[in-house]
Design brief:
This protein folds into two domains: 97 residues, Arc Repressor Mutant, subunit A (Orthogonal Bundle), CATH 1.10.10.10; 102 residues, SCP2 sterol-binding domain (Nonspecific Lipid-transfer Protein, Chain A), CATH 3.30.1050.10. It is an alpha+beta fold.
Length: 242
């Protein structure tokens, strides 16, 4: 599908009416937002593009339960809406990727607030599969900015075959994908899967208590201070029915 520089709804008012009100018939902006991104799989596709452009095959590999047909449909719709666009990587890669537009990247705050809200549910199940991108976005979300103080450091995250560079500064944690190696990070965290990070970063277990599935390189005290920055919100207390 040819990349559209303007959104479908921006081109024609009649087309806009096919999107706005298609489910709810409600002028509320939040209802309209659900009409734009509320279809099954749409938010997860957006999530997987949040750290940068990715090839169709890479998105499929991250979301194995999503069919190629449905992914194609979701990407086409997101392009028509102006949330996603296609781009071509320069040589030697020379590959087509899908990436979020400036408007689309604004959805990270939506994902963060939704994540903070949903993780408070006592029936949230962290043992389900977790993608490397989802883990990185989780860290950006659950970082307690009040604890950063004067800490500034580079952090390497190796999650299976995916590699990320993190830059911690007073204003937060920026993360982007990198190649196989990152030169001289202050800390390095390596594990086979994203789930292997959770007992240490959020459960506050030592790597030994967590089965030594997460390897940590760098100063041990600095690593403990860094891990301490990540805090999950308290669970909601559910009252018994009746």
């Amino acid at each position: 599908m040819k990349l559209q520089k303007e959104t479908k709804v921006g081109r024609d008012v009649q087309d806009a009416r096919k999107v706005h009100g298609k489910w709810y018939g409600d002028a509320c902006a939040a209802a309209f937002g659900m009409e734009l991104i509320g279809e099954r799989w749409t938010l997860l596709v957006i999530r997987e593009l949040m750290l940068g452009g990715r090839r169709f095959s890479d998105i499929r590999a991250s979301l194995p339960n999503l069919s190629a047909k449905t992914l194609t449909e979701r990407l086409e719709t997101l392009q028509e809406l102006g949330i996603v666009e296609r781009a071509h990587l320069p040589p030697p890669v020379s590959a087509q990727v899908y990436q979020l537009t400036e408007w689309g990247r604004g959805l990270e705050k939506v994902l963060q607030e939704l994540g903070r809200w949903a993780v408070r549910a006592p029936f949230h199940d962290p043992s389900l599969p977790l993608t490397p991108t989802s883990l990185m976005l989780s860290m950006r979300t659950m970082l307690d900015h009040r604890k950063i103080g004067d800490m500034e450091l580079w952090v390497a995250f190796d999650v299976g075959e995916d590699h990320f560079a993190g830059r911690l500064r007073h204003d937060g944690l920026s993360i982007h994908p990198v190649g196989d190696t990152m030169m001289t990070p202050d800390l390095r965290f390596s594990a086979r899967s994203a789930s292997d990070f959770l007992p240490v970063f959020y459960g506050k277990q030592t790597p030994e208590e967590a089965g030594n599935r997460l390897a940590i390189g760098g100063d041990a005290d600095l690593a403990r201070r860094f891990i301490d920055l990540f805090v999950l919100p308290a669970k909601v207390e559910m009252k018994a029915a009746g």
